Every structure is written in structure tokens, then in C-alpha cells.
Prior knowledge:
The chain is of the alpha+beta class. Helix content is 35%, strand content 17%. It has helices at 43-59, 83-90, 117-129, 167-170, 190-200, 203-210, 226-242, 244-255, and strands at residues 5-14, 23-27, 32-36, 67-72, 94-100, 106-107, 142-145, 148-151. The strands form two sheets. A five-stranded mixed barrel has the order 1-2-3-5-4. Strand 1 (5-14) and strand 2 form a beta hairpin. Helix 5 (190-200) packs antiparallel against helix 8 (244-255) and helix 6 (203-210) runs antiparallel to helix 7. The longest helix is centred in the first third of the chain and has 17 residues, at 43-59. It is globular. It starts with a strand and ends with a helix.
Amino acid sequence: MDIRTINVIRYITPLREGGSLPALAEGDDDFKYVVKFRGAGHGTRALIAELIGGEIARALQLRVPEIVFLHLDEAFGKTEGDEEIQDLLQGSQGINLGLYYLSGALTYDPAVTTIDPELASRIVWLDAYLTNVDRTVKNTNMLLWNKELWLIDHGACLYFHFNWDDTEQKALNPFPLISEHVLLQQATQLPEIDSICKNLLSGDKIREIVSLIPDEWLNWADMQTPGEMREIYFNFLTERLAYSELFVKEALNARKVFI
Length: 259
């Protein structure tokens, strides 16, 4: 597995208001990317969640825009007129994360588009596994592009890493917040999908994904080296996979409100 590294050559525009200020930017490969900045509110932890979440989704045969590492050099952003954006760019020197920009994509609207139960079940399983709190009716984080469903914005996954204690116990969290998932009502095949997803996600695949995390993103835990921190992520994900029946049962119980 390889993630391309690209230099950002042009900041185009911020994509929405808010603390993280993701932006549309152009890389030196002439393509446009949605940039998630390391200097934003949640720092590199959000980028780690975006990287792991996106690549695990891809391993589960779900559609995710290409993820790339985007490099900002020291000179980038000095001519930016907006002081808030200039501070963000200056605080994001080094490796950031980008997703290929799906030009013309439409936000998924559950009132308009119905998702196949197998696909809905796979996405619900993914988000329960990753403890993703951000795929709700208010913010679906899914796009329709070329008549296909694409997943975006996994930066709110793996929130255990904001409190580094008791990670083994947190891996067994059944994730009650799955009850707010936008696709839960359509996810009628969770037991079958559980078996499929566990076969697709081997320990070797999880380690391969975790190994992609750059060392410079792993500098916020004083007591651990980057290698030790990657091992914590690996152990969390493998333990959670081994006990997937906990979050599948939670999702099935949450679905009873629709029956």
C-alpha cells in the first residue's frame, strides 16, 4: 500500500466555516484536493482518523476518494490576505492530508435517495467499528458522484485517541451513538455483513494501514514513540474487530425502533 505525496501549489478557497477550515487546493500533479490541515483544531489526530478511516473503508470495498499526503512548504500562505487562513497555513507546514476532489458531486440526501440494504449495512458496520460519530441525518458525509455513493470525512472516527488511557477497554465499547446513523434503518443485513467485513479485514491489512501514519503526526503523546503509538492503534483496531459482535448487537438493538 502506498500513499502519494504531492506539493500544494495553490490555495483556492475554504470549503465551509468552522474551526477546521478544510479547503480546496491544487497540487503539483494538476489535480484538485480537499485539504485537511494539521494546524486545525484537532491537529494531527483528525488526520490520523481520516487516513485510517478512509483506508479501512476502502479495504471493505467502499468508495472513498483517493487519499494523498499534501506537503506545504514554509513559504506557502505568506501572501494570503485572510489572517485566520494565513495562520492556519503557517501552522500546517509539512505533511497534511488530502482527498481527491469529486467535482460536481452532490450531498447524499436520505429523503431523496434510498441505499441498497447490503451497502447500507456495510457502511453502518464500518462506522460502528471505527466509532464514527459523524454520519447522521444532519451531516451525512456521503456524496453521490457518477451515480455512485462515496464516503468522505472520517476525521471524527477513533475518538479514543483524545484520551489515551484504558484503550483496551475502549476497544470493547459497543458504541451506542450508532443509533443516530443516517443509514441505520436501511441496514437490514448486519449479521451477514459482519462475517464479510471480518474476512476482508485481516491483521496484516490493519497493520499495513496503520503503518502509513507519518512519524510527524505522532508527536502529541509524551510517553510513547511513534512506533509505540502505531501499536496502540493496531491493538485497538484488532481487538475491536475480534469482538465485533458487541457493536453489531448494539446496532441491531438500535434498529428495533424501526421495526
